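During the reporting period the student researcher (J.K.) took over the structure-prediction task from the postdoctoral fellow and processed the backlog of single-chain submissions. One of the processed entries is reproduced below for the supervisory committee.
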Amino acid sequence: MEQLAAEWEEALEDEFCCQVDLGQCQNFSGNYDIHDLRRIFDNLASNAAKYADPQGAVKLQIQTQENRVWIRQRNKMRVRSEGQVESHKIGLESVRQIAEEYSGEMKVEQTDMTFEVEIGLEAVELSSKIMP
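J.K. obtained the following structure tokens:
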């Protein structure tokens, strides 16, 4: 998780003030496909790069709780100019599908000013994840 958070920050740090909180991410074990985790973090970074306000911080928090890892991203929304294309939410839908593969969930809260996404992934046995 530390490596993925560092890569997320590296993708955004030139344009945004990034704040990463791993203080509640304790050692845990679980079988996750690294490609799935990378897709989550890549989609979160891409979403922030397109829609976050560069004047505000983009915050990432990762915490563990029992048999779940929680990934939260929060940012101030960029002011939309007229004619700006709104998101089709394809990346977020991809994240939701990955979360569901791990008996998890994804919640999105959005206002005109802020965007927050929370992803919960259950630590699963490798054999119980549906492999393509």
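The committee noted the following: The chain has three helices and five strands.
J.K. will present the remaining backlog at the next meeting.
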